[in-house]
Design a protein that fits this description.
The complex is a heterodimer of chains A (188) and B (334). Chain A has a domain of 122 residues: Four Helix Bundle (Hemerythrin (Met), subunit A) (Up-down Bundle). Helices cover 71% and strands 0% of the residues of chain A. With 334 residues, chain B is mainly alpha-helical. Chain B has one domain. Chain B is built from 13 helices and four strands. In chain B, the strands form two sheets. Chain B has a two-stranded antiparallel ribbon with strand order 1-2. In chain B, strands 3-4 form a two-stranded antiparallel sheet. The N and C termini of chain B lie far apart (46 Å). Classes of the chains: A mainly alpha (188), B mainly alpha (334). The interface between A and B is medium-sized, with 27 and 33 residues.
């Protein structure tokens, strides 16, 4: 099997897994299973990035999204420990149908736009493209201003969340709250 | 061939480690330890493995079946995969081809290590959640908080190493550590970056859930934590994962901070088979010393309280590693 065929095969596998994972994420009723499906999705997208010669991006995806953000999601899901009756009633079927049609129309529009777009040839890239060194160079030399703006944005968001959490801490705890809902590290 | 070799080493080191743990623990506590099965009790892990294989595989009531079965595999997979990025020895010339003693070459190996470390928490978290047991779930929760916190310190400690070595490629990092100062002080990153070394070392203990950071399973308050409800081979997979992760971490510490397979006074550019085996031996000697230290610490220190663990991670290690990065940057400009 030639190199490009192998590449295509793996692309199809990962693309299928990504769509499958994304579908499961929104269709599962149990939030835990949604989180598991999201991990599958992140892993598959990371695989696609790996095939598109962006190993740095692929591993960052795994590290940041699958390795850190989703662990936080999981943390919250486990702390809440929702029971079946707390998940809320299932939505009525006409609403479900409407949502499905809406998604299909959006997908169709997007697909049409992509297919209609003039297919410009991909710009040629150096052999080092996507390596950590190359990503660092373009980030800190070429795009340093947007990068700094993003960092200010993230800092603002961090401070905002600290302020919000602090407001909650300053207020006295409601008395009826049972004490054992505090998991490990619950005082943060 | 290298793939099979590395997998074999990871799988075979675990029973040896279990044996070493029990013997060293006995030595620390002034006991004898397992000494009946085979010479010095060396076959004890084998007997244990057979016992575990034949034990009843209990499936408790009310477990979430899918995640309950998935969790042990998810725990073992990252621990075993991590060893693929380690350069175990100098490349060997075999019949005109250079044989690299590293499975996954390339400059993103270090990132793969970090990504896999992050993923290693899922096995524990899912195992704890799926078990339908409060203690197991608390163990899983603790594990997710702990791994998340210490991964940051670990990553930041690595940044200063990358700055010193000017690369994220493990082979370059090893090459950068060859040579000596004054003829006897090796140019290891442990000497160049002592603070990063200590931070990474402490974080490695936390990431592998070893004492003094074994809060996810601490038997005093959580019975056994996340693996309370597991038995037979599913339990063994968790067990295997812990020791495999310990081995991988020690390999990583050796590569990053203790010069990897290089040794002081090493001739450069040698690709002979004998030289390759010599470097392999040097590498494993360093790893074994680290493993001995890991085991010794487990049987010497008491366990942290959970808030102490979080304070150490967030209020000491992370600021310290950030300051270390700044200091490294200033030193590089001088």
């Amino acid at each position: 099997m030639s190199h490009s065929v192998l590449r295509e095969t793996f692309f199809v596998i990962f693309a299928f897994l990504a769509i499958f994972g994304a579908f499961l994420t929104v269709s599962r009723r149990n939030p835990m299973y949604s989180a598991v499906s999201l991990i599958l999705f992140f892993g598959a997208v990371s695989g696609v990035m790996m095939i598109l010669s962006a190993p740095f991006l692929a591993l960052m995806q795994l590290m940041v999204y699958a390795g850190a953000i989703l662990v936080l999601f999981l943390f919250v899901i486990m702390l809440l420990a929702l029971r079946e009756e707390e998940l809320g009633e299932e939505r009525p079927w006409p609403l479900q149908l409407l949502t499905g049609i809406g998604c299909a129309v959006l997908f169709g529009l997007l697909a049409a736009a992509i297919l209609r777009a003039p297919s410009a040839p991909a710009p040629a890239v150096g052999g080092d493209f996507g390596s950590p060194a190359e990503v660092g160079r373009s980030m800190f030399a070429e795009w340093v201003l947007p990068f700094e703006i993003v960092s200010v944005l993230i800092l603002a968001a961090t401070m905002g969340s600290v302020v919000l959490a602090k407001k909650h801490l300053d207020r006295p705890e409601p008395a009826e709250e049972p004490a054992d809902t505090h998991g490990p590290g619950g005082g943060h | 061939m290298v793939v099979v070799g590395v997998f074999g080493v990871v799988m075979q080191i675990v029973p040896l480690l279990v044996w070493a743990e029990r013997r060293i623990c006995a030595w620390v506590q002034d006991r004898v330890g397992p000494n009946r099965v085979g010479p010095f009790g060396l076959f004890q892990p084998l007997a244990d493995a057979i016992k575990l294989l034949f034990k009843e595989d209990v499936l408790p009531d009310g477990v979430d079946r899918f995640l309950y079965f998935l969790a042990p595999a998810l725990a073992f997979f990252p621990a075993a995969m991590t060893a693929t990025v380690i350069p175990f020895g100098a490349p060997i010339m075999v019949g005109g081809d250079l044989l690299h003693l590293q499975v996954c070459r390339g400059n993103v190996g270090m990132l793969l290590f970090l990504a896999l470390t992050g993923l290693s928490v899922y096995g524990i978290a899912f195992g704890g959640w799926a078990s339908n047991n409060k203690f197991a779930m608390l163990g899983g929760l603790r594990a997710s908080a702990q791994v998340l916190s210490y991964e940051i310190a670990m990553g930041l400690a690595l940044v200063s190493v990358f700055m010193t070595s000017q690369s994220v490629d493990l082979n370059v990092i090893v090459a950068d550590q060859t040579g000596t100062w004054l003829g006897f002080i090796p140019k290891w990153n442990a000497v160049k970056q002592p603070i990063a070394f200590v931070i990474f070392f402490v974080a490695a203990f936390a990431e592998t859930n070893r004492l003094p950071f074994d809060l996810p399973e601490c038997e005093a308050e959580l019975i056994g934590g996340y693996h309370t409800e597991y038995s037979s081979m599913k339990f063994s997979l968790f067990f295997l994962a812990e020791y495999a992760a310990m081995f991988s971490s020690c390999c990583m510490i050796t590569t990053l901070f203790l010069g990897g397979w290089s040794f002081p006074g090493m001739p450069s550019g040698n690709t002979g088979v004998l030289f390759g085996f010599l470097t392999l031996g040097v590498f494993f000697a360093k790893v074994l010393v680290l493993l001995f230290f890991f085991i010794l610490v487990r049987w010497t220190l008491p366990r942290f309280r959970f808030d102490q663990l979080m304070h150490l991670g967030w209020k000491s290690l992370i600021p310290l590693s950030l300051a270390n990065i700044a200091a490294t940057g200033v030193a590089a400009q001088l």
